[in-house]
From TrEMBL:
Residues 7-124 form the MSP domain. This is VAMP associated protein B and C. It comes from the Eukaryota. The lineage of its organism: Eukaryota, Metazoa, Chordata, Craniata, Vertebrata. Its main location: endoplasmic reticulum. The keyword Coiled coil applies. The gene is VAPB.
Amino acid sequence: MARPEQVLLLEPQHELKFRGPFLEVVTTNLKLSNPTDRNVCFKVKTTAPRRYCVRPNSGIIDAGTSINVSVMLQPFDYDPNEKSKHKFMVQSMLAPPDMTDMEGVWKEAKSEELMDSKLRCVFEMPVENEKTHDMEPNKISSSLLKSDPSVLSAKSLSSTLDDGEVKKIMEECKRLQMEAQRLREENKQIREDDGLRMRKSNIMSSQHASATMKREEGISARSVAFIMLFFVVGVIVGKLVL
């Protein structure tokens, strides 16, 4: 069975428009009018409940009166290439004469008693903001290119600094160059000293080895002389005894 036609009058009827920039909460109003002679219960639902705050989102509209519903879009990063798929639905039904519990009435309502109207969300960005948004990526890439040290020449660098800053930079460069030269000279001197110490060590080792060999040769000669002396003495003593 088809649902009955919506008795409430919606203003706007089909679209909820939100105008940027969306850096803060953007509010649009939805007017609900009840032209009938009976009270009407209503609910406002959305496909993106975390993105919107709706006040009031439900209630009763007395016969012959109207109510303004504030739909507040929360701040977000706007992308002009992204189409909005958010939708709202206004659901309503005629209130029973003896109604005391509205939530209970909604739970017990039959589908043929419910009426609904759907609205889609439209995001509008001012022309100057759209141009700014489109130009931001180009500005960012251009600024990054300009700030890249690999593409900065000395002339362009000096043009962005005053004379005092340029002078400080030149003095710092000169100081670093002198420091690098001093370290190179110290390194060279250390290598020369190490080479000299190694040569002295080799010479001293050779001299020590030569002296050791001479001492060993002297000891050997003296040993032979003592042996010969003892041999001669032994022969003489032997002859005297005989």
